[in-house]
Write a structure and sequence with these properties.
single chain, mainly beta, Signal recognition particle alu RNA binding heterodimer, srp9/1, four-stranded mixed beta sheet, 33% strand, globular
């Protein structure tokens, strides 16, 4: 999913817009079918940045947003239904 910069004003990505040198800003890489709670726990143990903790969304997904070492944001989760 690609976002225009101003589309992120109320999202976790907004805080990253002002940081110089970050790669992948505005790109959200999504993987569905991976348990977001387990991934968040493993990411925390590895010292990764959690941009958004795992949570349920009204559109029927539960996901976590994790920043990889290159600065890309990964939204990883599962469908939970309506």
């Amino acid at each position: 999913m690609l976002h225009a910069e101003d589309a992120c004003d109320d999202e976790p990505l907004h805080s990253r817009r002002s940081e110089d040198g970050l790669r992948g800003n505005g790109a959200e890489l999504r993987i569905l079918g991976v348990d977001p709670d387990q991934l968040e726990e493993r990411a925390r143990q590895a010292g990764a940045t959690i941009l958004q903790p795992a949570r349920d969304f009204p559109h029927g997904w539960r996901d976590v947003m994790v920043v990889d070492p290159d600065g890309y944001v990964w939204a990883v989760g599962v469908a939970i239904g309506p």
